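Checklist before submission:
- one chain only
- standard amino acids only
- sequence pasted in full

Submission:
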Amino acid sequence: MSGGVFLKLVWQNIILSFTKILKSSMNVLKTFLVSLLLCVSVSLKADKIGKAYAALKIYNYFEAKHLFEQSLKKQTAPAAYGLSIIYFRNDNPFSNIDSAYKYIMKADRAYQQLDLKQSFKLLDYRIARQTIDSMQMVIHVKAFDFYRSQNNIAALNKFIDNYPTAPQCFDAIDLRNSMAFAEAQQTNTYQAYQDFMNTYPFAKQFAQAKALYASALFEASTKNNTVEEFEQFIAKEPESPFIGQAENSIYSLSTAGGTSKDYHAFVKKYPFNPNVEAAWHAIYAMSTADYRPESFTKFKTEFPDYPFMDAVNQDMEMSQKALYAIRENGKWGFTDSLGHSVIPCIYEWVEPFSEGFAECGLNGKSGFINKAGKLIIPFVYEQVEAFHDGFSVVQQHGKSGIINTTGKIIVPLEYDDITEYSEGLAAVGKNEKYGYVDDAGTLVIPLGFSKAADFKEGLAGVELGGQTGFIDTKGNMVIACKYDWADYFKNGLAKVKSLKKYGVINKKGETVLPCEYDLLGDFAEDAIMVVKGDKYGFADKSGALIIPVDYDFSEGSLISSAFKNGYAVAEKNKKQGLIDKSGKYVTAKDFDRISAFSEGLAAVMKKDKWGYMDKKMKMPVAFIYQSANDFNDCVAAVVKNDKIGFINRAGKVIVDFMFDEVSAFNKSGLCEVTIDHKIGLIDLSGTYIIPCELDAVTSVNTTVLKLEKNSKFAYYNTRTRMFIWKENGF
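Returned file contents:
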């Protein structure tokens, strides 16, 4: 066999070995193969190097290794290159990737020392710059795969130390750092994060480790959640990003009782805490929540050190005024309850007063005025919400924040979405992530949720990964996000939905009603309607099924069949009756329709006619009406000849049948009635107080109505039966 053919077979076997190892590195391998195949036709000289490659060709690794080692001193480049091939391959006892790397680097250094004539001569041994570089690259790949497969930091450190020139060194460093960071996270102590930062100061995870270190240190230092721990933490770690949370925790713990005394004690003990102003506002809000002059006087006596006393005096004066928005010549202002214009009509728009302040607009911007007409919050906001508990949500340049009644920005205007405070926290959103800020403006629950609801009874619904759960006011996940939907908690219970079925849980996340119902009503008189398919029954607040699911369900059942005054509507075979909570019928069960008792009478229907039945099953009002509503203050609206009138409990008609629509009579004895889409007001005698000529009637408060007609409006006092103010042209 000729030397050329022999060596060609040697290289083909080497190439086959590389191909099996380096399927993911085909571009590198192609370069290597091309450089080898270009010179397969060149014959080798019959020296030791040639004999060594001949031995390598027939897999005589012992002979080849021996000859290469003998030639290493005088013919370093080709000998070291041959040794790198032996150590690179897996089919011999000498296989060792570190040795392969050692000799290819030796070959590289030796080759660099050769002059042009010497390097040209090495072409006889199939060695060129390109083949050495290619061999280095495949060794780098194999070495990285070898050390990476050991899946530990020590192995990756060895690769990094032994292969500093490998392109994979950067990947090894990143992988090593990730593994070290994962170990620190698993340990999850501030010492573990500190060690990581000390050992890997240039790791990509350094900033995250620093944040986790601060968090873990804060948790370890305040694990007992005591005021003393938080005080010590603030003293020892003044630069910690959790100083604000520590101060907030001191505030929260110190005022946990929620009394004015608690808040005042906090103000005295921690005068430099950023929550002092919030504490004062809390004291003020609690003391003057009813906005009565007597409350302001009492507050001034009890808290003479209140820092905003001027505002108290103004509020006390303002509290005695009832003001209503009016319009003149397209501009808005306010009138008092006597019809006197007290705030001139100079604004582009106004909203009703809330907590002594009213939104008004000028030059396209919103601000707030007080009842004296003084501008309190300048016209700088694109949108504002009414004040609630001393705070208003405002918007500027498309971003939302919160201000207090002094105009101070409590929550920076940097959020895409923000809600009003509920139980001391407001949900905020940025880049479709939601968290919560406290009433000092501190982000106390990070932006980590895809949705966030208001707090009710100490818990708020949040969404992660399309599933809903509940957190407490400290951000702890109390009930895991595993529901498709969840309602607010009411009296310790919340409706939830999972896999298209509804159930009920308590505040511990325990199942009260399993998610196996197609629909649920609302709790009424401690009972809830449960629906499966086209049947319904009732369960109590403990989850016990008190009335079996065997009544016929229809669209109106959720509303009409809830328990009221101790009874619920039960329907079977298109017939209805009333049952009590034991499931016992308290009426006949052959009515076409029935409503719960109201003021001792129940509206019932037979053969398309309605009447009223008492609890003795007698019919004081016969079946003569097309429709019948519940009694309210001894009066009920009924329909006859397609018109609505009113009867008393004896069935006597007290207001004749002439109306298309009616409301209930209010406490002033007036009722809204409609004829041909026009609204009027009548009294209990049926006498018109306002003829049916109005377009809309809106209740402003318990005694004042806003009346609208032909795009004009007026205010009417239902108690005095007199107009307060009329717009020109009303």
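Reviewer check: The radius of gyration is 42 Å.
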